[in-house]
Design a protein that fits this description.
Blueprint lengths: L1 E7 L4 H17 L4 E7 L4 E7 L1 H7 L3 H11 L4 E7 L2 E6 L18 E5 L2 E4 H4 E7 L7 E2 L2 E2 L1 E7 L5 H18 L4 E8 L1 H53 L9 E3 L6 E3 L16
Antiparallel strand pairs: 1-11, 1-12, 2-11, 3-8, 4-5, 6-7, 9-10, 13-14
Length: about 280
């Protein structure tokens, strides 16, 4: 439906993901019509340990020794509890270092084994670096690494209204993000839908205008036709008056004797044609 991109010139995708993942997901998921919000192109920060098999063989350290040492130093065990007012809170400790065991520097000096009275540290048999949990994901926006936010709508929701709601939330999200993190729209699936709707609206307007013009032209032509017919009737009456009496068609004339009508040839002496008794 809509894809957002989080970029930064000073932070890695893992740092961006860790900083804004909860904020962005929770805020966008509350927009009416949004069904799911997924983050891609990044992952949570993690410390990655790349073992060197030749160093392990040289010092006589197995991979199980390294795993056991890491697990023991990074155990997340409860340190106690606080109870009161019907509630109980468990206390956990994230590590004995300032960063709580979240940085590679916290593990480089970790002792993984002892050989001949000498300590074998993790940095002697492995490369310890800061990284992310999943290194097989990559997000790019305009050629720069980015965390991609995929927003999908709920079934039956209006896609345009949902996208408008997400876009209206972007200024508020940007204000809550770190200043060096930029939130931008990477893709909007409603652009083609909006273009189609604009074309439909324009077509309807043109159709309505054409219908109005055609009806107006028809009504005007009908009015002119009625006026012309009246003029033709007046001209015909004038022509009738100008025709000589002998050429005018026969007209019915009342018969005084019988109260009916008879036809005469248009002569003025129609009375002469009456039947006279024989002498």
């Amino acid at each position: 439906m809509i894809i957002l991109a989080l970029t930064s010139k000073t932070r890695s995708p893992g740092q961006i993901y860790d900083e804004v993942s909860n904020l962005v997901q929770q805020k966008i998921a509350q927009v009416p019509g949004v069904g799911d919000v997924e983050l891609g192109g990044g992952s949570l920060p993690a410390v990655r340990v790349e073992l060197n098999p030749f160093a392990l063989s040289r010092y006589g350290v197995s991979m199980e020794d390294v795993r056991a040492a890491l697990q023991a130093s990074n155990a997340n065990r409860p340190k106690g509890a606080i109870e009161g007012n019907g509630q109980r809170f468990q206390i956990y400790s994230g590590g004995n270092t300032a960063t709580g065991g979240l940085k590679a520097a916290d593990y480089q000096g970790l002792v993984v084994a002892w050989r001949n009275g000498a300590a074998i540290r993790l940095s002697d048999v492995a490369e310890v670096v800061d990284g992310v949990e999943n290194t097989n994901t990559l997000g790019l926006f305009n050629g720069s690494p980015a965390v991609v936010v995929l927003v999908t709508r709920q079934p039956g929701a209006n896609v345009i209204e949902t996208v408008d709601g997400v876009r209206a939330l972007l200024p508020e999200l940007q204000a809550q993000l770190p200043q060096d993190v930029q939130l931008q729209v990477a893709s909007d699936a409603t652009q083609s839908i909006r273009a189609s709707l604009r074309e439909i609206e324009l077509t309807l307007l043109i159709s309505i205008a054409l219908v109005v013009l055609v009806v107006s032209a028809f009504l005007r032509s009908a009015c002119h036709g009625d006026t012309g017919g009246g003029h033709r009737g007046i001209a015909a009456r004038h022509l009738w008056r100008d025709v000589p009496d002998g050429l005018q068609p026969e007209q019915p004339e009342p018969d005084g004797a019988h109260g009916g009508h008879r036809l005469c040839g248009g002569r003025r002496d129609c009375g002469a044609g009456k039947h006279q008794p024989a002498h």
